[in-house]
Specification:
This protein is mainly α and 625 residues long. The chain is built from 29 helices and no strands.
Length: 625
């Protein structure tokens, strides 16, 4: 394999040398240098380079102090109650038992897990027997648990020395020491009695209600204790599960992790809340939406949606307060990309095997050659495309900054899967967003690729399937029912905005459908405006869209600052900042054609990506000192 790679490296060197010496390359390079120089000297680039948002300014203002008062209160509680609460938790028997349960699970201690399984099996059997049902399978599980309990070893130690685990970590470029548990918690008999008691208790409950609960609850208890003890584990779970789990489960996990972080901030005397300018704007955005919910045409529903917004925006604060070093940040990005890979693999399997799909979201008369649009776990092809727009540039950035052939091949493969899934969504707005994201990434990470792109551009239509070309060239064609549908909705929404531009109508489909029929064009019915910016304006009024615009402006400004501090073009930190920024830009382009926040999980992922970008800016700033 190394010989083949060496052959390709030599082959590419010869081709690249030939390209560099060609007249075409000299012309394209001259054009690029002229454009690049004009950009660097432009007022727009100069504005981004200058620090127009002084750090800490928000904390000095009255609004900043009001919105930051929860953080000030938590710091006060840390000073007044931190030591007492820390001592109380340290002396608590219940906390001690929970800690023992957690660390034996983290260690994958076979004897503990054996007692737990034995308790589960016996408990479910007894619960079913109490209902007059006999299921010997649960007694078999109890027997297997008892046999497993004969081994007193930690499975985590085996994983640490596993060649497979080492290979996967090397492919993904992650570092972990498996130092997740305290060895002294995996000895003694108390932990065994604890495992048996927990298994019996929840096993009986499961047998009396639903047997699967006898297994699920002890595992869920481990997850709960893990998040309470280590809030960063909750953050990693949030990033991984966001596109996979239900909305309310994600809202609960976000709030649980936030609660765990709050407890940590009180009992840890070294903890300091990070409350930056973007955080100030996000809190202002939440408060504006609270006012919009209280004045909504469907107040009860709008308030429930506001609670989801608040829970998901809290994810931004989780990232910037829990991620402290480049290793943690890298591992979190790997989690984000791997989750995206699983989502897209499932979507591609939908296409290949026809799983759970229907000919929907498509003008069948105009696009009869397109038989299927994938949506994976996100319920809608456009929503899946919006998600991929955020994760694909990050995967490409990981490929660009990967060390060694193995890492580059891994992330090249992941990027190819994500790109293939995006194509199969047949979402034209997302395709346009991808082109914009690619333009941003190439411009700031690898400007020389513009020459290759100009050469490849005339060739692409010759190799693309006709269905993709027809779909792309139909953008703006009013004969397409999807296009005309959106245009009519935009016209009706603009008519609504003329009357409700100050306060908005409130959040959610119920508020929108309560008002929209009075303004609709051509009898078109819609649950939202199919435009992110119009939707925010019609929901929260002019102040809401203004604050959202400031959020985007502040974020991109900080990304520009981080790009410079990270070393500029070609530097790994700057490349990843560019990748995250490119994804956000592509997402916002799609937002011109769809209400990207209609799916709350995609909204959660958007705030998480903003947090990842700001975490990278912090790392770049510290590296530049």
């Amino acid at each position: 394999m190394q010989q083949n790679l060496g052959f390709f490296a030599v082959f590419w060197s010869v081709i690249w040398c030939w390209i560099q010496n060609s007249q075409t390359y000299r012309i394209l390079r001259g054009v690029y240098d002229r454009i690049s120089g004009s950009w660097r000297e432009s007022r727009i680039a100069g504005w981004f380079r200058q620090d127009r948002f002084p750090r800490g300014l928000h904390q000095k203002s009255l609004a900043g102090r009001i919105l930051g008062s929860p953080f000030a209160l938590l710091e006060l509680l840390q000073k007044r109650l931190g030591a007492k609460l820390r001592d109380a938790l340290g002396q608590s028997v219940l906390v001690g038992l929970g800690t023992s349960y957690l660390h034996n699970f983290l260690a994958l201690n076979l004897r503990f897990l054996g007692y737990l399984l034995a308790g589960m099996g016996a408990g479910v059997f007894l619960g079913l027997f109490g209902k007059g049902t006999i299921d010997w399978g649960w007694l078999v599980l109890a027997l297997l648990g008892r046999l497993l309990a004969l081994l007193d070893a930690n499975g985590t130690d085996w994983l640490q020395g596993s060649y497979l685990v080492s290979f996967v970590c090397k492919c993904l470029g992650i570092r972990t020491e498996f130092s997740w548990y305290e060895a002294d918690k995996t000895t003694g008999k108390t932990r065994l009695y604890l495992g048996l008691a927990v298994g019996l208790l929840f096993g009986v409950m499961g047998g009396l209600t639903m047997p699967i609960l006898g297994v699920a609850i002890p595992v869920a208890l481990f997850g709960l204790l893990l998040v309470l003890a280590k809030p960063i584990a909750g953050l990693f779970a949030l990033v991984f599960l966001a596109p996979l789990a239900p909305t309310m489960a994600m809202a609960g996990l976000s709030l649980l992790t936030l609660g765990s972080l709050i407890i940590k901030s009180i009992i840890d005397p070294e903890f300091r809340w990070r409350y930056d300018g973007l955080g100030f704007l996000l809190l202002a955005f939440v408060m504006i939406y609270l006012f919009a919910a209280l004045s909504s045409f469907a107040m009860a529903k709008s308030l429930s949606i506001w609670a989801i917004y608040a829970a998901f925006i809290a994810a931004y604060f989780l990232i910037i307060n829990l991620i402290h070093n480049p290793i943690q940040l890298r591992n979190l990005l790997v989690t984000f990309v791997v989750s995206g890979l699983l989502v897209c693999l499932y979507g591609i399997c939908q296409y290949l095997f026809g799983w759970d799909t229907a000919q929907a979201w498509m003008d069948e008369e105009m696009f009869s050659d397109i038989k299927m649009r994938i949506y994976s776990t996100l319920e809608n092809p456009n929503v899946l495309g919006e998600y991929i727009l955020l994760v694909l540039p990050v995967a490409i950035g990981m490929f660009w900054t990967g060390k060694g052939v193995l890492q580059k091949l891994t992330y090249a493969g992941i990027s190819a899967v994500l790109f293939g899934a995006l194509i199969l969504t047949f979402s034209r707005g997302c395709w346009v967003g991808l082109l914009v994201a690619a333009a941003v990434f190439v411009t700031f990470a690898a400007g020389k690729l513009w020459g290759l792109g100009l050469i490849a551009l005339p060739i692409i239509p010759a190799i693309l399937p006709e269905s993709i070309i027809n779909r792309f060239t139909s953008i703006g064609d009013m004969k397409d029912s999807s296009t005309s549908y959106r245009v009519y909705i935009w016209m009706g929404t603009l008519a609504m905005i003329r009357d409700f531009w100050v306060s908005g109508i409130g959040m959610g489909a119920e508020a929108f459908t309560a008002v929209y029929p009075f303004y609709s064009y051509n009898g078109v019915v819609a649950p939202h405006s199919h435009n992110l910016f119009l939707q925010i304006l019609v929901e929260s009024g002019i102040v809401g869209i203004a604050v959202f615009g400031l959020i985007l402006l502040f974020f991109l400004k900080r990304m520009a600052t981080g790009y410079q501090l990270g070393g500029g073009k070609g530097a790994p930190l700057s490349t990843m900042i560019t990748a995250i920024s490119a994804g956000v830009c592509g997402f916002l382009v799609q937002g011109m054609f769809d209400n990207c926040f209609y799916n709350y999980r995609v909204m959660l992922i958007f705030w998480l990506v903003l947090g990842l970008g700001m975490a990278y800016e912090k790392v770049a700033r510290e590296a530049g000192r």
